[in-house]
Every structure is written in structure tokens, then in C-alpha cells.
Amino acid sequence: MNKKTTLPPEGVEGIETIEDILAMAKDEKREILRLWKERKAREAKSGRGGKRQPSGKFESA
Q: In a structure prediction context, what are the per-residue pLDDT tens digits for the chain, which is 61 residues long?
């Protein structure tokens, strides 16, 4: 089976309830998890998501 996994047009943000996730196929769940991990890694690299210090600089959480 060489099926291309398609995501909702709005991406991960379109998942609102646990039922949305449970209704997905196993391959779709893996793809969503991969995209989420990539997004978190990009946020960590760009310095977003850290705690803002009084000096205005970020500190990693």
C-alpha cells in the first residue's frame, strides 16, 4: 500500500477533539505526529516558546 497521506487543509490546527484523532488512520496519525515534532523543533531553534526574561531575552524552558 503506497497511499499518500492527506491532511486537512488547515493542518494540525484543524484537530479539535480526541474523536478527530481516533477517526484517523494509523498512517495519518504518524504524519500528524511528525509534523507536530517538526514544528516544535523549528520553534525551539527560532527561540520561540522560551520564557521571557526581564531583560527581554529568552531562556529555554
A: 344 555 555 566 677 788 887 888 888 889 888 988 998 998 888 876 555 555 555 555 5
The rounded distance, in Å, linking the Cα atoms of 21 and 15 is: 7
What's the CA gap between 36 and 60, in Å, rounded? 19
Q: Which domain holds residue 30?
A: 17-41
Picking from 5, 46, 59, the residue whose alpha carbon sits closest to that of residue 28 is: 5
Name residue 44's amino acid: A
Strand, helix or coil for residue 14: helix
The domain tally of the chain equals 1
